[in-house]
Specification:
Helix content is 83%, strand content 8%. It has one domain. The chain has 131 residues and is mainly α. The chain has three helices and two strands; from the N terminus they run αββαα. Strand 1 and strand 2 form a beta hairpin. Keywords: Cell membrane, Coiled coil, Membrane, Transmembrane, Transmembrane helix.
């Protein structure tokens, strides 16, 4: 549907230009400063329209290319930041796991020491008694 409207608007613009050209078919002089030419007004109008369209296209293309380059750079930066974040998260997880394992080992030692001091039986002998 979107493209159909573009075609319709394009055809209407072409129709307006054709009607305008037919109404303005007399010869007119054009002075470029260094040269002077004379030609049908329609050719002057169409030439000016084509030159204007080319300037617009060139401007649009350069803007689009700059935007694509910027998008590519931003995607590259995003990927770099994501990798860095993933690395930092992994380091934090590993650090937390090591800390938890150390705390668990300390608590196990304290538990074993308290168990041994309360019962008066060495821990190795307690294990043999349980079996």
């Amino acid at each position: 549907m979107k493209n159909q409207w573009r075609v319709i608007v394009g055809l209407l613009l072409v129709l307006v230009i054709v009607v305008f050209a037919v109404l303005n078919s007399q010869n007119v002089p054009v002075n470029f400063g260094f040269a002077k030419i004379s030609g049908p007004l329609i050719l002057i109008i169409l030439g000016s329209a084509i030159i204007g369209a080319l300037v617009g296209v060139i401007t649009s293309v350069t803007t689009i290319l700059d935007q694509k380059k910027r998008i590519k750079d931003l995607i590259k930066d995003k990927d770099m930041y994501k990798e860095e974040t993933d690395r930092l998260v992994q380091e934090a997880v590993e650090r937390t796991q090591r800390s938890n394992e150390n705390q668990l080992a300390e608590l196990q030692q304290k538990y074993d020491h308290l168990l041994e001091s309360n019962t008066g039986i060495p821990l190795e002998k307690q294990d043999e008694l349980i079996k």
